[in-house]
Amino acid sequence: MFVDQVKIYVKGGDGGNGMVAFRREKYVPMGGPAGGDGGRGGDVIFEVDEGLRTLMDFRYKRHFKADHGENGMSKGKHGRGAEDMIVKVPPGTVVIDDDTKQTIADLTRHGERAVIAKGGRGGRGNIRFATPANPAPEIAENGEPGQERYIVLELKLLADVGLVGFPSVGKSTLLSVVSSARPKIAEYHFTTLVPNLGVVETEDGRSFVMADLPGLIEGAHEGVGLGHQFLRHIERTRVIVHVIDMAAVEGRDPYEDYLTINKELKAYHERLSERPQLIIANKMDLPGAEENLAAFKEKLGDDAARVFPISAVTRKGLRDVLFAIADLLDETPAFPLHAGEEPDAEPSRVLYKHEKEKADFTITRDPDGSFVIHGEKVEKLFKMTNFSHDESVRRFARQLRGMGIDDALRARGAKNGDTVRLLDFEFEFVD
Ligand SMILES: Nc1nc2c(ncn2[C@@H]2O[C@H](COP(=O)(O)OP(=O)(O)OP(=O)(O)O)[C@@H](O)[C@H]2O)c(=O)[nH]1
Ligand SMILES: [Mg+2]
């Protein structure tokens, strides 16, 4: 199974900062607290869009950051929350945390959503910190930082387009020049033994998945040659591209080839003959191909418009045929698979695994003797502290004590006056 994969960065918006403010009233020198809360930061949310078939769009945009919340304001006004950022993904996208390798979400159905990076909550303004004992606090919280992480998106590809034709007509060569797939190419029959899939992008930015299938021969529907299993694969493609060696390198008549393969498709399943089909006349760089093409078109009659002459080797005609395939896909609905067949049978699930509780903090020592504190929780507290108000700083010190950091520093031998570092903040240990 061919898998499209891409690594990207996501970050929820930071919460807005809470405000320290006081009411100003005539004749009242200092009124009560009036600083509002910050608004919440936006989430990064993935949503399934069945119109997407590949992860091609993520090749160009790899960073997704939701907006931050608005800061709190004076007069008790709260900051506005940010809008969530909605990122569209194709059905079948599996989202994996790149650090833990855990699956975050497995998105299958149209419209299904999952929060991939949570926005931070807004910081509280000083109104929230007022108590009878401290009616005018100079304390406000900064917004909580949004969640950030690297994730890997994986998509199991289902082919939109299947290349069919006799062996050695150039199916693998064609796939190799229009996609990054690298199938084996050779002049002997049945070089391709299993389907190869490649993602094709047209010049106008449309993309689809094309499968290079093993060559078919007469009797394929009864199991002759590589037979059945690959015809089953064709059944799932929306559009069939019939590749013909128009130079008749092996001496067969191109029109006979065309009829034979179509007969095989129909004998395998009536439905296959109703599938939209486009004809590629390949190897037009070789002598005799032009004459054969004229004769071929004449025999086809009205269907001649579906023939696209190309050379997979010189790359002539590729642009036009890719546009034609993309157009045909645009107007062809997906074929419903039968109940019990793969993607539909897979239960849809969005997982929110409980993330393992990490230790609140760790303490290490730098060569210069200073103590360094690390830890998600303590770093978050730090980021949410507004250091421009002494009272906020004192609150932070109390929080550190509450987490047991003072005791832990003492246990590691910290003495009065020793330097302690946390992110870019440095302070003296006071015993
Ligand atoms: N001159 C010329 N040769 C081509 C062209 N396309 C393919 N060939 C040659 O035809 C031979 C068969 O090509 P493949 O791409 O392996 O054919 P295939 O249809 O995948 O064959 P199977 O996998 O065996 O079914 C190779 O030697 C290719 O180099 C073309 O446009 N012009
Ligand atoms: Mg091949």
Short description:
With 431 residues, the protein is α/β, with parallel strands linked by helices. The chain folds into 3 domains: 1-155, GTP1/OBG domain (Spo0b-associated Gtp-binding Protein, Chain: A); 161-330, 3-Layer(aba) Sandwich (Rossmann fold); 362-428, GMP Synthetase, Chain A, domain 3 (2-Layer Sandwich), CATH 3.30.300.350. The chain has 10 helices and 19 strands.
Describe this structure as you would to a colleague.
The chain is an alpha/beta fold. It folds into 3 domains: 1-155, GTP1/OBG domain (Spo0b-associated Gtp-binding Protein, Chain: A, Distorted Sandwich), CATH 2.70.210; 161-330, P-loop containing nucleotide triphosphate hydrolases (Rossmann fold), CATH 3.40.50.300; 362-428, GTP-binding protein OBG, C-terminal domain (GMP Synthetase, Chain A, domain 3). The chain is 22% helix and 22% strand. It is built from 10 helices and 19 strands. It has helices spanning 171-178, 228-235, 254-268, 270-274, 289-300, 318-330, 342-345, 376-383, 390-402, 405-411, and strands at residues 3-11, 44-48, 63-65, 85-89, 93-97, 103-107, 113-117, 148-156, 161-164, 196-201, 207-212, 239-245, 277-282, 307-309, 349-350, 362-365, 371-374, 419-422, 425-428. The protein has a 6-stranded mixed β-sheet with strand order 3-1-8-5-6-15, with no helix packed on it. A 6-stranded mixed β-sheet has the order 10-11-9-12-13-14, with helices on both faces. The protein is elongated. Magnesium ion is lined by residues 171-172, 183, 191-192, 212. Magnesium ion (MG) binds next to helix 1.
